[in-house]
Design a protein that fits this description.
The protein is built from nine helices and eight strands. The protein is globular, with a radius of gyration of 17 Å. By secondary structure, the protein is an alpha/beta fold. Bound molecules: pteroic acid.
């Protein structure tokens, strides 16, 4: 899953997709589409489009702002590329419009906390990723605390899966994600990575997002743009532990890791 972040954000490549000669952040459609086609050429099967920055310390955006960032890009990708479009949002309005524009996968870091979003998933028949987070992006790294992070993540995801099933969403439409870096200390993140095989108990595809995160930088001491090697090491571990979908900025390198891991797994 390749990432396209439509936020004025130095963490990923979002800032590079900004219109030139424009003081306010506005998405350059040509640049965004060209980035999407590169990701697909590198082997991405999903493109995850996000208009709300959710990394630690990020501020909330208005629904209008989120819509104006993501919808034109979804339309453009839908009309020109053969790839599953994922929308990274928790907003029911954004989900509805994104589905109308061609998104087939909802990536909700709040695991459908808004009951309206459950109805939308059920009625539209799209698939959804349910992710674990403790707290909210603005403050989640200030006081992460667990008795047992793996148990709590597993319990939370199990509960959210059950809510979805009880609401009539098909099991085959669900994906789970432990939410690396979302209200978790460095130690919590590595405990979760080590115990990732336990998530297989839920019998659902597992998505992981590790790419360039502080759980890598916290070990390597490198800035965001020098975390690829560390990211691939952690990705390999996740793949061997049962991860099925890898959310990544560096798609070519990630696809190589997946191919090598697959060759290893069938040897
Ligand atoms: C993720 C994810 C996501 N991550 C899913 N969606 C982000 N399903 C956005 C840091 O510690 O893992 N899974 N959408 C990006 N969020 C973060 C979080 C970025 C933490 C950076 C950090 O550096």
């Amino acid at each position: 899953m390749g990432v396209i972040n439509l936020t004025p954000d130095s963490f990923s490549d979002g800032a590079q997709l900004k219109k030139d000669n424009c003081s306010k952040f506005e998405v350059d459609l040509v640049k965004a589409l060209s980035r999407a086609s590169t990701l697909v050429a590198e082997g991405a099967l999903f493109i995850d489009i996000g208009g709300e920055s959710t990394r630690p310390g990020a501020e909330a955006v208005s629904t209008q702002e989120e819509l104006s960032r993501v919808i034109p890009v979804i339309e453009a990708i839908h009309s020109s590329l053969d790839v599953c479009i994922s929308i990274d949002t928790s907003s029911p309005e954004v989900m509805l419009e994104a589905i109308g524009a061609g998104a087939e996968f909802i990536n909700d870091i709040r695991a459908l906390a808004n009951p309206q979003t459950i109805e939308i998933i059920k009625d539209s028949g799209v698939a959804v990723c349910l992710m674990h987070m403790q707290g909210e992006p603005g403050t989640m790294q200030k006081s992460a605390s667990y008795d047992d992070v793996t148990e709590e993540v597993l319990n939370f995801l199990g509960e959210r899966v059950q809510v979805c099933l009880d609401s009539g969403i098909g099991r085959s439409h669900l994906v789970i994600d432990p939410g690396f870096g979302f209200g978790k200390s460095l130690q919590h993140n590595y405990q979760l990575l080590k115990n990732l095989p336990r998530l297989q108990e839920l019998n659902l595809p597992i998505l992981v997002g590790i790419s360039r995160k502080s759980m890598i930088g916290g070990i390597t001491g490198t800035p965001v743009d020098e975390r690829l090697a560390g990211t691939i090491a952690a990705t390999t571990h996740a793949l061997l532990s049962g991860a099925n979908i890898v959310r990544a900025h560096d798609v070519a390198a990630t696809v190589d890791a997946i191919r090598v891991n697959s060759a290893f797994s069938v040897a």
